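Hi V.,

Quick status before I head out on leave. The structure for the redesign project is tokenized and pasted below; the design run finished overnight.
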């Protein structure tokens, strides 16, 4: 039970511990703030307690080796000595393919077949037509460029989601708290995602609103959960690359600036036969709230 104290409110270790426990439930940062408000915590104290607790968590989960050649912090796998496998915490993950421009790694066996099936079955009843960000306003809309169905899992919502998020944080040396909620997408025959950039265009009027929740996106991880029979690869048109949507594998690519020079233009090719299921984790430069 959260203790409230309307005068001289103190951000104590017990309060921080309580916030950590709420994040593990998992409640979202906004739900925790709401709970603190209704228990009588002043807005400024509640916000400061939440922000400092999240910052502590971030410090605990940040690992070295996350700075690119220009000195910009960016998610990166530790691949400088060309390993065939990387430690993802609770399992070894294969390094199948590496590219420098765009900075891209294809991982093999990030999820087991059972874990993929569990995620699909947990997502299936919650699927709805995918939305696309409206850059002018920061809102979202149904768009012909994106004909998949999708849903979001909250951070650590179930065991497999929590394991996947922890593996990604470990592999990419990037704080778990900087990840957006995991999105699951389902493409039926004919469905596709036309080439686009995942970062938010700095010149669009809606971008400052979007950036309030953890800053720019700096990387994308697409995990293949269900294989189509034909089609459905993830395409990188600038470099003529297609990553095959093989169950359990994942493609990671990062972009250290919101600019086409990152060559991070990518799309989901139309599914020709069968069905494609993926989970996407977008990583922000700061804590995603
Ligand atoms: O489904 C894909 O391969 C794909 C392609 C492009 C997914 C995304 N973008 C995405 O989720 O951002
Ligand atoms: Zn994308």
């Amino acid at each position: 039970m959260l203790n409230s104290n309307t005068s001289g409110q103190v951000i104590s270790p017990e309060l921080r511990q309580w916030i950590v426990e709420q994040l593990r439930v998992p409640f979202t940062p906004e739900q925790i703030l709401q709970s603190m408000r209704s228990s009588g915590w002043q807005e400024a104290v509640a916000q400061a307690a939440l922000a400092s607790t999240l910052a502590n968590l971030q410090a605990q989960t940040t690992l070295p080796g996350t700075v690119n050649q220009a000195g910009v912090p960016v998610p990166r796998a530790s691949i400088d000595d060309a390993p065939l496998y990387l430690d993802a915490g609770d399992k070894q993950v294969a390094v199948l393919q590496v590219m420098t421009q765009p900075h891209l790694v294809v991982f093999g066996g990030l999820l087991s077949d059972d874990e993929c099936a569990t995620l699909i079955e947990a997502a299936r009843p919650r699927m709805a037509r995918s939305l696309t960000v409206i850059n002018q306003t920061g809102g979202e809309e149904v768009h012909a460029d994106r004909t998949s169905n999708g849903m979001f899992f909250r951070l650590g919502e179930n065991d497999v989601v929590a394991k996947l998020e922890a593996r990604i944080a470990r592999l990419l040396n990037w704080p778990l708290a900087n990840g957006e909620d995991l999105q699951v997408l389902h493409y039926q025959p004919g469905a596709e995602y036309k080439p686009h950039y995942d970062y938010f265009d700095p010149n669009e009027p809606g971008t400052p609103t979007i950036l309030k929740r953890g800053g720019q996106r700096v990387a994308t991880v697409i995990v293949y959960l269900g294989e189509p029979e034909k089609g459905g690869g993830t395409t990188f048109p600038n470099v003529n690359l297609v990553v095959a949507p093989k169950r359990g594998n994942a493609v990671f690519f990062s972009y250290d600036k919101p600019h086409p020079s990152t060559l991070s233009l990518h799309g989901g090719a139309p599914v020709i036969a069968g069905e494609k299921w993926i989970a996407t984790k977008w990583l922000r430069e700061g804590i995603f709230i």
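Above is the designed sequence. The first helix runs from residue 13 to 24.

G. will cover questions while I'm gone.

Best,
W.
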